[in-house]
Amino acid sequence: METETVNWTRKHLIGLEDLSRQEIELILSMARSFKSTIDRSRKKLPALRGKTIVNLFLEPSTRTRVAFEVSAKRLSADVITILGATSSQVKGETLKDTALNIEALSADMIIMRHSAAGAPLYLSRMVDIPIINAGDGAHEHPTQGLLDAFTLMEHLGSLQGKRITILGDILFSRVARSNIWALTKLGASVCLAGPTTLVPDAFREMGVDVCHNLREAVTDADAVMLLRIQMERQSAGHFPSLGEYTSMYGLNKGRSDWLKPGAIIMHPGPINRGVEIDSDLADSDRSVILNQVTNGIAVRMAVLYLCMAASEPVAGALPL
Ligand code: CP
Questions:
Q1: Strands 78-83 and 52-57: what pairing?
Q2: Domains defined for the chain, CATH in brackets
Q3: Which band of pLDDT confidence, cut at 50, 70 and 90, is reported for residue 316?
């Protein structure tokens, strides 16, 4: 048994833009400890026993919602999930009233996904309990950025000087933004790739490179992270058709010959097979896509523990 000293003061996790490198490394270090508990026959830790966590998902999700639920239960919290379509939001209740009522029902934390950028920050100013952002519009998806960094470090070691290419719909991607903040703070060199309409030059202001040629973007990469074209966030035609996007920027087994021998393929999911990536590559030995999903449990256990501990006493030192 060993314990970790928690040097963390944030009760909300809204995004990675505000986090220091040390704070990101603390989360990843704690996640490594939690990951070592996942394969045990007795998986539950008592750390959040007696706490109630509400999963408020007002946009669709599979991976993030389930991973947060599993993570909270592994820490012995009680979990209640509220989905937009079955909540009183459909009767016109405001987001603020929804959150105030959840707080009045004795919840200790809200994990929320919302289509509007800024919704979690807004709620963090309305309630006293911790708010964890599980994705807000095209703004941030901090736990995805953290689990991607965690997975990259498992495969590449330190990210200092490593080249990571993020390819696809950058403009509308909260995953891209959270990854840019996390990876650059951890010392990686980030290249954003795709058509000019989806990867505008303005992104260079975030300290990254921009490239519109697929082959150039992937040849020196240690990892290539593919992103789905988010049709639900696009109101204008940013490319002629999905077929034409695939012909120029889709990654397949043949084009994977352009990658360095040890380079890995990542994708936050959901995958649109045959559009941004072909099945034979998504399911190949280069792919760490399902590792990303599994790592989401350990990373979210770390986030839940740290933010809850910063808000109110938890069940003593962390037994690992
Ligand atoms: N990566 C991700 O956010 O997936 P879900 O939309 O299924 O949660």
A1: parallel
A2: 21-140+294-311 (3.40.50.1370), 142-290 (3.40.50.1370)
A3: low
